[in-house]
UniProtKB/TrEMBL annotation:
GO terms for cellular component: NADH dehydrogenase complex; plasma membrane. The gene is nuoA. It is an enzyme of class 7 (translocase). The keyword Cell division does not apply. It is a multi-pass membrane protein. It holds the Pfam family Oxidored_q4. One of its GO terms (molecular function) is NADH dehydrogenase (ubiquinone) activity. This is NADH-quinone oxidoreductase subunit A. PANTHER family: NADH-QUINONE OXIDOREDUCTASE SUBUNIT A, NADH-UBIQUINONE OXIDOREDUCTASE CHAIN 3. It comes from the Bacteria. The keyword Membrane applies. NDH-1 shuttles electrons from NADH, via FMN and iron-sulfur (Fe-S) centers, to quinones in the respiratory chain. The immediate electron acceptor for the enzyme in this species is believed to be ubiquinone. Couples the redox reaction to proton translocation (for every two electrons transferred, four hydrogen ions are translocated across the cytoplasmic membrane), and thus conserves the redox energy in a proton gradient. InterPro entries: NAD(P)H_OxRDtase_bac/plastid, NADH_UbQ/plastoQ_OxRdtase_su3, NDAH_ubi_oxred_su3_sf.
Amino acid sequence: MQNIPQIFAHHWAFAIFSISAIGLCLAMLLGAFFLGGRAKARSKNIPYESGIDSVGSTHMRLSAKFYCFAMFFVIFDVEALYLYTWAISIRESGWTGFIEVSVFIFVLLVGLLYLSRIGALDWAPIGSRGRVQSNPSIYKMAQQRQSNNE
């Protein structure tokens, strides 16, 4: 069994790193507390974003489609991560790795096709999923501008 000085001799770098990280965090927190502003005003507590005052309530309901979009992003981002690591080790993994990646991609494609089939990827409301209607007046204005430029 090792005694205390031998343990410190082996782990001195980690101890210095830990102490300096904790010290830096404490210094930043104390610096913000002592150097931070103390002015109180009614307008300091009002939300302010990008130079525009907030209008309306912040308690609004968001569609679940935003959640689904975020989940799809995470799923396919993780898929890209796994495929990247597989591509780096393609020579070592050989045909076994190729078959495993093919099964992995197939399962994800089946899931994507299922989501597309049940309508989870449709963002437009049901009533507006038809053919896109063009505006003839915009088309005429574009033709007039083109003929004026010639």
